[in-house]
Specification:
Elements: H1 6-17, E1 23-25, H2 31-35, E2 38-40, H3 47-60, H4 66-72, E3 97-98, E4 103-104, H5 132-139, H6 145-152, H7 156-168, E5 178-180, H8 182-185, H9 190-204, E6 214-216, H10 223-228, E7 235-236, E8 240-241, H11 252-259, H12 269-281, H13 305-313, E9 319-323, H14 327-330, H15 334-341, E10 346-351, H16 356-359, H17 365-369, E11 380-385, E12 394-397, E13 402-406, H18 419-435, H19 443-447, H20 462-470, E14 472-473, E15 512-513, E16 546-547, E17 575-578, E18 583-586, E19 683-688, H21 704-709, E20 714-717, H22 719-725, E21 732-737, E22 740-748, E23 755-757, E24 760-762, E25 764-768, E26 802-808, H23 816-824
Parallel strand pairs: 1-2, 5-6, 9-10, 10-11, 19-25, 20-22
Antiparallel strand pairs: 3-4, 7-8, 12-13, 13-16, 14-15, 17-18, 19-26, 21-22, 21-26, 23-24
Length: about 850
């Protein structure tokens, strides 16, 4: 965090100054480790084993926050009799596995009885052998400190030191937070790693309380925003699901029936979705045409970036827009990425500098080696200069879910333009062409309500865009109460009515429009852009920016009070039940129905929020509980299970199955995987980010002062490994995987340590990934080594744990490279070298993810 998120790390240091204990778990001793109280070096890819060991320690030693766990989590819920865990036979499979389909039938993962998830049968004593708590206890029973050492290389002494520190920092009077970033997400079981952390924090009572929680440290200023108002293919704004094109959601009625939950906040799904359709299509969306549902694109397969990449390579894709991305450096198997780009007919690149994705056709390792020839590449590249963040107005949404507005400081130079300008002008041109067409395919374009007022450059007025995202009445009635923000269209006619003050005002009858329900309230009927507020009033920052939902600074904060409504302690009070006023009050905006008494219990016949008990804080779930066991929503299991990385130096010590059974391998000759313990690739490689550079380097490598601070690619390795390979500090080395080979300097340092796993010594190396062939500072692209893979829930690649070889000396240049790499990576052989990798005809390419949540899925994040 100190290395990659240094501004946010300031607050960690402030906590340390006030007595907080900082624990850093990382294969590499970094700037964060240097400032931590405890550094835990571990083998990359063993996270679930380590976290699962902590879960077992807390359960077996009765160290969990009992009152919190019993009332606020689903620990007491009874599971079905036919549920089977991975530990039954230690197979690594849950009940419902279908080998032929390579998928789970998840029915057996649900609660017992016929009342669904809304009103589960519970045993508050936690003694029923089929309750979630006892099932969880059995699931993690073998994750002992000795097993953690065998898998992760963490000694039992160090394990207990971490466990004691974490437990000591948790309880009614204390809380602990967990911060993570790509070190957890970029794994073949990344979602389940974060799930294990959620289980840990729920057991300790650290969710929904001040100083607790799990913070996803976002990789850019607005990565949170790019999932809220998404750039991801499988969700719509506010985490609404994209409709499916398999026939199951043919009509609006079908779609809403699938997505609307009987109880909890998602019971309001129709209001959120229909208001979104009204924002998209305006007056063209009517009850008679299902509010334009037929115009919404439908998911017909896996539309992830990796799927597009394969289509490019196979000549099935003609063109591509690339904005704020550089897959030629930042994406997995970037060597294959550059080759695939050469198969396009046209490519539009928008960036501030000529990145590798714009120059691959004339300046790339493949051109230098003769693998590609510029005269043979037919791809026509259109380079559009982009405006920087100081040259445009708008909002960032950061890690804390906070929208912060930034003003435009200067006009962009020359022909540089903002993304807003580009998308606005592109849309206007496409809509104009569509209106001259009678093709039914163009009907969705003709139906779009593209109303935005423009500034003198042709940029859409960004506050008008924010007003639409916030939501408004769709009736432009004169004299209506509340501010009408930007209320005329491009022809000057009234366009919409007053702004709404929150998502609670959204309706399913077409009377409201809203571009993103979770942001509703940021620009309400008072006309104040709260994202632009800069008047912090308390330690939570109320008055500074706007935090979704409803400016609640700590989500699920009903959990900060006892089941009976009083604060857990004076020191940790946040919101509480005011008996005299009959409502929830406190320092934060209560994340709960304001007048729902803690004593309220539904009868079992209610719907929506009326079905949530007064002591159930997690109202997005149908039962209102925090899920230790996930009864629905995940593809690869209801409880986290340790699987080895797709490339690993060892076999799975816990189960007969080595790898996540649902992972998407993207099987292809150019994307092979090494089998477990492959002697050709004996070392573990993990990647990381430097403070001085930013992602693929487009915003940092081209700046002389930053380039001077970190001028060259390097690989950190331990003195023991360097001695074994006869490598000195600063020597050139070549790093090889089944995908390719790159060159770097060796950085020999005690920051990397050999790991001892079950009697076997495993060496790890760590490399940054910011370098490429463009700009004043050049170097190999580390991601040339990374395989393309897809975690089952969100299709993110595994970049933090893979197998490699190290060859002392420089990489051969020109045509000599081909003969050299064949020596270390034989060209022949099947693409599925890993025994658990399905053959090409059985790959799950084309299957859509079904996440319901989306994480950091952008390749360059």
């Amino acid at each position: 965090m100190a290395e990659a998120h240094p501004v946010g790390f300031r607050w960690v240091m402030k906590a340390k100054e006030r007595g907080a204990t900082i624990i850093h778990v990382d294969p590499r001793f970094s700037r964060t480790s240097a400032l931590a109280d405890i550094w835990v070096p571990m083998r990359a890819g063993g996270d679930i084993a380590f976290l699962g060991g902590l879960v077992r320690h807390i359960i077996e030693n009765n160290l969990f926050f009992r009152d919190y766990v019993v009332h606020f989590t689903n620990a007491s819920c009874i599971l079905r009799e036919d549920f089977r865990d991975t530990d039954e036979g230690a197979t690594g499979f849950f009940s419902g596995w279908n080998e032929e389909q390579r998928a789970y039938d998840k029915k057996s993962w649900g609660y017992d009885g016929d009342r669904g998830l809304s009103f589960p049968e519970r045993d508050l004593t936690l003694q029923n052998p089929r309750c979630v708590f006892q099932t969880l206890r059995r699931h993690f029973a073998r994750y002992t400190p000795e097993m953690v050492e065998k898998i992760c290389g963490i000694s039992p002494e160090l394990f207990h030191k971490v466990a004691d520190a974490l437990v000591t920092a948790s309880g009614p009077d204390k809380t602990a937070a967990i911060c993570y970033a790509l070190g957890w997400t970029q794994h073949s079981k990344g979602v389940q790693i974060i799930r294990t952390a959620s289980i840990l924090q729920l057991l300790l009572g650290n969710i929904g309380r001040p100083g607790g929680g799990i913070l996803a440290l976002r990789g850019h200023a607005s990565i949170q925003g790019s999932t809220d108002i998404p750039t991801l293919y499988d969700i719509l704004p506010g985490y609404l699901s994209m409709p499916r094109g398999d026939g199951s959601e043919e009509s609006l009625r079908d779609y809403l029936a699938h997505q609307t939950k009987p109880t909890g906040l998602w019971n309001n799904y129709p209001a959120y979705f229909i208001s979104l359709l009204k924002a998209y299509y305006g007056k063209n969306a009517t009850p008679e045409n299902d509010f334009g549902y037929k115009w919404v694109p439908k998911i017909t397969g896996n539309h992830s970036f990796f799927e597009y990449l394969y289509d490019m390579a196979d000549g099935k894709m003609e063109g591509m827009f690339m904005m704020g991305q550089n897959p030629a450096v930042a994406a997995a198997n970037s060597r294959f990425q550059r080759t695939s780009l050469s198969r396009l007919k046209w490519l539009v690149v928008r960036d501030m500098v000529e990145i590798e994705a714009a120059t691959f056709w004339c300046n790339s390792p493949e051109i230098e080696r003769g693998e590609l020839k510029a005269e043979d590449i037919e791809t026509e590249v259109f380079f559009f200069p982009a405006a920087g963040h100081a040259e445009k107005a708008g909002a960032f949404t950061q890690t804390q879910r906070m929208l912060q507005w930034r003003q435009k400081a200067v006009d962009p130079p020359g022909d540089a333009r903002s993304e807003g300008w580009f998308m606005n002008q592109l849309a206007l041109r496409l809509i104009a062409k569509a209106k001259k067409s009678n093709d039914p395919l163009d009907e969705p374009l003709r139906a779009l309500d593209w109303w935005y007022p423009e500034d003198r450059f042709g940029d859409p007025e960004m506050e008008a865009v924010l007003a639409e995202i916030n939501g408004w009445s769709t009736n432009p009635q004169p004299g209506a109460e509340g501010v009408v923000f930007g209320g005329v269209d491009r022809q000057g006619t009234p366009h919409h009515g007053p702004q709404l003050d929150g998502f609670g005002k959204l309706k399913a009858d077409g009377s409201t429009g809203c571009g993103g329900w979770i942001y509703s309230g940021v620009l309400g009927p008072d006309g104040v852009n709260k994202a632009n507020s800069r008047n912090s009033q308390n330690y939570l920052g109320h008055g500074w920016g706007f935090v979704w939902p409803a400016d609640r600074r700590i989500i699920y904060n009903r959990a900060s009070a006892k089941p009976t409504g009083e604060p857990w302690s004076e020191r940790k009070k946040l919101v509480w039940w005011d008996q005299g006023q009959g409502k929830w009050t406190g320092i934060d905006v209560p994340d709960f129905v304001p007048d729902k008494s803690p004593e309220f219990r539904p009868t079992g016949n209610e719907s929506g929020l009326a079905g949530i008990p007064g002591d159930a804080p997690f109202m997005l779930h149908e039962d209102g509980l925090g899920w230790l066991h996930v009864p629905q929503g995940l593809q690869d299991g209801p409880m986290p299970t340790h699987y080895e990385p797709l490339e690993s130096p060892v076999h799975n010590a816990l189960y007969s199955r080595d790898t996540n059974p649902l992972v998407n391998w993207f099987t292809r000759q150019e994307n092979r995987f090494a089998p477990p313990g492959d002697p050709r690739f004996p070392y573990v490689l993990t990647t990381y980010r430097l403070t001085e550079h930013h992602t693929a380097g487009g915003m940092s490598r081209f700046l002389s002062h930053l380039a001077e601070l970190q001028p060259e690619l390097f690989a950190e390795m331990s003195p023991e490994l360097a001695a074994e390979l006869k490598i000195d500090n600063g020597d050139y080395i070549s790093i090889v995987s089944l995908r390719g080979a790159i060159e770097s300097r060796a950085l020999v340092s005690r920051r990397m340590r050999p790991m001892h796993l079950n009697g076997k010594t495993v060496h790890q190396i760590a490399m940054p990934f910011h370098f490429g062939s463009a700009g004043p500072v050049k170097g190999s692209a580390t991601n040339d080594l990374i395989p393309i893979s897809g975690e089952p829930n969100v299709t993110i690649m595994e970049a933090k744990a893979l197998a490699c070889n190290i060859v002392p000396g420089r990489l051969p240049r020109g045509p000599a490279f081909e003969a050299w790499i064949k020596k270390y990576v034989p060209e022949g052989g099947p693409p599925n070298l890993h025994p658990e990798q399905p053959p090409p005809e059985e790959t799950d390419r084309g299957k859509p993810t079904q996440s319901g949540y989306s994480l950091q899925g952008r390749p360059d994040e």
